[in-house]
Amino acid sequence: RDYAAAYTKQYQQPLLYNRVGIVDIPKLAEKAAADIEIARADYQNALRWLNSIEEFDNQPGMKVAPFVRYQINDQKAQIYRSRGEVPAAEAALQDNLARFSTVKESYARLYDLYLSRGLWDKAAALEKTMKTVYPVYFAGRDTEAARLQCEQLPFDKKMSFYIEYRNFDAALSLLETMPSLDVDHQLLRAR
After folding, report:
1. Is the alpha carbon torsion for 61, 64, 65, 66 positive or negative?
2. pLDDT exceeding 90 applies to what percent of the chain?
3. DSSP letter at 50?
4. Across the strands, what pairs with 15?
């Protein structure tokens, strides 16, 4: 951030770089700061950073670069998902899909959200679309098999699945089903 502030004092922002396009160094520094806040799980600050980047769209003649827009939506979805705000995460990921329908990861991230939350009907509908658009790339996706496999997972694997896909509410609910928590599970619940 200090570099970005010093750089801004010396040079007018944003600048047109020949091969990259228009670049605003301070805004890129803000995006890096948002990444750091997400890693710290300081979601409020991360959202503040991400929203400050989006303010670009409100300036005449300025727009957030498409790839940066994709990353902002993706990071917001990650935060919303971690906070259990599934509709907000879904909206951010659907916006990415609408804007970047040629990016395979747009489909995969939304599909993973649906699987991790047990939204099997939505996952199945998206699976059909994914296989229509990218038949080879998504050939191995099978929502029904994933549902059956998820239902049959043993406790520890199901817990790991929920934590990996940031479904902390389901992980806590699963912990509540245990008659008594051992030390490892008590620490997990505290985290």
Report:
1. negative
2. 32
3. H
4. 23
Q: Is the peptide bond before 14 cis (omega within 30 degrees of 0)?
A: yes
Determine the 3-state secondary structure of 23 from DSSP.
strand
CA distances from 32 to 27, 96, 101, 108 (A): 9, 20, 25, 24
Cα–Cα distance measured from residue 78 to residue 168, given in angstroms and rounded to the nearest whole number? 12
Q: Measure Cα distances from 136 to 46, 108, 139, 141 in Å.
A: 36, 14, 5, 10
Q: What pLDDT, on a 0 to 100 scale, did the predictor assign at position 165?
A: 75
Q: Distance between CA atoms of 122 and 160, rounded to whole angstroms?
A: 23
Collect all residues with Cβ–Cβ distance below 8 Å to 76 and sequence separation of at least 6.
Answer: 47, 50, 88, 89, 92
Pairing type for strands 15-17 and 21-23 reads antiparallel
- The residue that leads in pLDDT, 65 or 179, is 65
